[in-house]
Specification:
Length: 152
């Protein structure tokens, strides 16, 4: 059941991205270009998404399980730190340069757009690099003198 639910949710999300124009990099770049012929239509899409998400988060805040019985796993941290800010800036730069963010890029890959394939490849490479650096940092932290116990 969870797999079928995820498939249906992914289909509806992808369909929404196509209908709203979010999978079209030209439309997204038109929205992001405040100095040129600005296209405000995606602001309405985003406002609608925020409204729906706000209701969904208000409902889920009172639940411990999803409607199909899976445990809720919402982030608990509210810390605004350097990694969050750097990641946000990198996300914005990538969105502004390519006209894609991850969800619409995957939809565009499904449509066979070469630009999206390049974007998703770069996105995956960035994810692998991040994971490598995090594991390296974690290994270095566990090897530092203040983390070594008397047992070794």
């Amino acid at each position: 059941m969870p797999l079928l639910t995820a498939l249906i949710a992914g289909f509806v999300f992808g369909l929404g991205l196509l209908v709203s124009g979010m999978a079209n990099p030209a439309k997204v770049l038109g929205f992001l270009d405040l100095a040129g012929p600005w296209d405000p239509s995606l602001a309405l899409v985003m406002a609608g998404a925020v409204a729906v998400a706000s209701v969904a988060f208000a409902i889920t805040a009172k639940r411990t399980r999803t409607l199909i019985g899976i445990e809720m796993k919402l982030p608990s941290s509210r810390t605004i730190d350097a990694p969050l800010l750097i990641g946000s800036v990198l996300f914005g730069i990538g969105w502004g340069l390519a006209g894609f963010c991850p969800g619409p890029a995957l939809v565009a890959v499904g449509m066979g757009l070469p630009k999206a394939i390049t974007f998703v490849g770069a996105m995956l490479a960035g994810m692998v690099l991040f994971e490598f650096l995090e594991r390296r940092k974690s290994a270095n932290t566990s090897m530092s003198p203040e983390h070594v116990t008397a047992d070794g």
